[in-house]
Amino acid sequence: MLAGSALLSGCLGTRYLQPNEKLLYNQTVKVPRGISAAPYAGLYARKSNQRLFGLPVNHLVWMYHTGEKHYDQPRLIARRDALEKRYATLMEKARSEKDIISIQYRKQKKLDAVNSKIDNGNHFMQWGEKLALYDSAVTTETVQKFKDYLFSKGYFKGNAVAEVSDVNRKVTIQYKVIPGHAYVYDTIRYAVTDSAILKVLRRHEQEQLILKGAQYDQDALSKERDRIDQLLRDNGFYNFTRQYIDVELDTTIGKPWAIAAQINIRNPVHSSHHKQFSIDSINLVTDVGVQGETKVRQRYPYAGIVFNNFRDIYNKKVLRQRIFLYQDSLYSRTATFNTQRQLANLDIFKFVNVNYDTTGRRFVANIFASPQDQYAWSNEAGVSVTQGFPGPYYSLNFKKRNVFGGLEIFDLNGRFGFEGVASATQVGNFYRSTEANVTASLTFPQFLIPLRPARAYRWGRYNPRTKLLAGYTYTDRPEYKRSITTYSTTFSWERGHKLQFTFSPTTLNVIRSDVSSGFQAVLDTLKSKGNNLINAFRPSFVGSMLFTVTYNPNNYGSNVNSFFVRASLESGGTLLNLYSPKFIEQWGLEPYQYARASLDIRRTQVINKHTLLAMRVNTGVGFSYSDNKVLPYEKNFFVGGSNSVRAWRPRRLGQGELPPRLSTNPNSNGFYDYSFEKPGDLLLEASIELRQKLFGFVNYALFLDAGNVWAITSNPDTRTQFNGERFYKQFGVGTGFGLRFDFTFLILRFDVGMKVFDPARPEGERFVLDRVRFTKPYGTTREPVIYNIGIGYPF
Questions:
Q1: What is the rounded distance in angstroms from the CA atom of residue 161 to the CA atom of residue 144?
Q2: Half-sphere exposure (Cβ direction) of 678: Cα atoms closer than 13 Å
Q3: What was the pLDDT predicted at 162?
Q4: CA–CA–CA angle 279, 285, 287 (5° rounding)
Q5: Identity of the highest mean pLDDT range in 162-166, 478-482, 575-579, 743-747
Q6: What's this model's pTM, rounded to 2 decimal places?
Q7: pLDDT surpasses 60 at 610
Q8: CA-to-CA distance for 644 and 511, rounded, in angstroms?
């Protein structure tokens, strides 16, 4: 208690106050019903200090002042001067240009680090926060910002006031927003003297963003200016800029709360109109930065484009499908950007630039592309963590670009590793598992299906791809040896940056297993209790068709309000209705026929600069209509793990309220054995996570997960069946906390999961949060705490 009191007193911001200073403790905004307070919270001229977990603990203030105690700026300045002298001496001794470049790089790197500390303080000061002091002038500034915001939203006579409360030198401010009446558009007029521009505007007038009767909004007006600018640049007006557009507003038109708007499009100085440009010719250089055997590139005219290169190694037809500029067509900024983006998407070129030459009364499009290396390879050695136990691995990747001259890409990937895994037959035993896999793929930058040339050109703007993939995976564990041979054909395309589609008409898997007699007995026992783990080890043939659509409108995963949806439909064994290959029967493989669907919805909501709320709902259902009446094991749904319900080990939650078998360990005191995976036909899962900055590159999170899987086909145990009247009582619920280390290039995540409700226990005994223990990751005498390690966010 004494230590806690000392820590708390050290982290309270009031400790650092000087005489006559007050702490800006909290700020709130009160708005009328129907108006959101969120925009106003981002307008504070000075923000209150962040508090840990919402408690009155200003940990970042403590961190800043701790760093300040050890901050010696004169010493840092002296170090900078010494560095300057040291590297000046090294520069004098440099013998080559390479040495000079190396010395300059090292000098600048060290100087940047020292200058950062001189300007911004040491690491603790940079990670922390200065004490937020109350200042009446800053409060007045915030009130003015609120008034300006009200004005920008059409509340021209709006007002805001601040109510200040001071208790024990901690100031709380409540801002009251009084919007008043909103002004709406009574008339909207476009004043244009350029007939060509007027013609374009009239052709697209249904796209206007401001309309009669709408409330005035400065942001909407700005977006209308951007729309006009983009529209004109897409219709040949190469030199047009947003500065030619201005807006006149009039509130003296004789009607209450009404406004008249006139949008003026001015002509250039010394000209009566804006010039409209058409493309005279198009040049493409595909080997920028490459030294050729000759000094002059060869020229190859094709489909309205002049290809320039030292060696003619790229398929012109495929490249033409990714270029959306045409001779004698009007200049279009959108077509220019799309050309640049689609050529870059080929993964053939390092960079692509599109420039226009307007000299000599001509308008020439020049496309410059610098090629990537034709051959590339990479290798990686590391350690993966499975079920809390590390295992080394080594991977090797090889890539060849432009394999057949048609901009194809060949990838060959191999991986070999060991993993520490739990025994499937003995509780508490862990041993080494060996896994090796190799995958080869060939990607074509077009659909490998017959298309008319005009349609192929139209599809080029959607980044079409065809990927042929073959792979082999081998797993060796004491209980079984298993191999999976895979082949798939996948078509992919996209609509802008928001929608991506994949369609795999052919996905084939041949699964072979060699199971030990002891493990076979365990599988048979599990089968009698409704767990179809045995299906994962039967020789089987799984063929399917899969269609997936992903909607990502605002770059999900960035620190903005974002939304993400992925939906998939899969049909397995459909072709078996028409044709059954002989090898299925000859090899003793069991075929499967099934239908499967899944839906994954995610959303992030920014609360403030350092706080974000992430939410996820994940559902899926599968149904088998083959003779065996079960799904292929890999097509089942599972719950539990670092990206699911984190209070359960991977794939160990479910089915329904069916309890796992009791542990055979005599010290387990009746606790369950979670050695076996729990597959299901139906998945319902949801998570919510609060993420907040802790300090510097370290963030923390509080989370709540819930979910389960059920059987929907016939099962000998009704406790596994989905029941619309009881399913909500069968959710496994877990909570916990975690740390996220944001290294920019990756996010390393540590999560601690604790069970709250365990559906495997009898009703009335399912609350288990009071039984958790932290001393061992897989305890046997109390409910274990699960430690999860992952790369990236869980969703």
A1: 9
A2: 30
A3: 96
A4: 165
A5: 162-166
A6: 0.83
A7: yes
A8: 26
